[in-house]
Amino acid sequence: MGSAHAEQPHPRDLKSTDNTTARNTTALVQTFEKGLQLLEYLVEHKVVSVTSIAKLMGIQKSASYRFLNTLRLHGYVEQDQHNNYILTDKVSKMGNGIVPRMEFRHIVSRFLDELAKRNCKDGICNLGKWNGKEIVYEVQSANFEYVQYSVGRTVPAYCSALGKAILAHLPEAALATYIQRTPMEGFTEKTCTTEERLRAELQEVRERGYAIMDGELYLPLKGLAVPLLSGDGRIKYAISATRTQYGPIDSLIEDMLVPLQETAHDIVEYIKFYHFD
After folding, report:
1. Are residues 215 and 88 in the same domain?
2. pTM of this prediction exceeds 0.70
């Protein structure tokens, strides 16, 4: 009894299959390119028709319709009462989702540089981020050579303006955990070192809308900070203005409070628009 062997394909058949696959891949790439071309045209012109797309892309109206209808089925366009196609916000949402982290820092840096240039020429403006334990300096204005607390460095939250601006808006459970786990070291005779005093200061921050640091880290160093409140209950960032000066902190508040609040508002609007985390 003879054994059965699977029939092996002829080399010509293999070559034919490879050629067919290559042609299919080329056609797929060309279709994808046309789809990208169509999206770019939609972004530029906002409203298009089957006829205008056919002329632009050099294709039949039937093909133009298929392209546009595919985009409609996937939510990228919708039709108006005249059967024109209008771009939806799905494309912008996709773009917002892939804006890199560095872009956020770049945007904030521009705001802080402008703020410092206009209102804080003898100090420095900062973006601080709460990492759950302390404050990380994420962005600083480029107008001043004061680098004791440079980008990437951390400072305690309980005795910095940035930290108190954020702590004041933490949920009570998170604040209680922070206080329980944090030894309040005294850096100067002005440093807050007790829970009672810290809670009193945080209540003042909530009531007046800003936090101060008056010589708690370094005697001549004054700081003023406002939180970046996005309205969703989360707090992660604050911005501040700091400068080395002797005497009362009142002049820093008078010079910088309103500009800081306005800049914080503008940054929050960017955070909302670009869906930054």
Report:
1. no
2. no
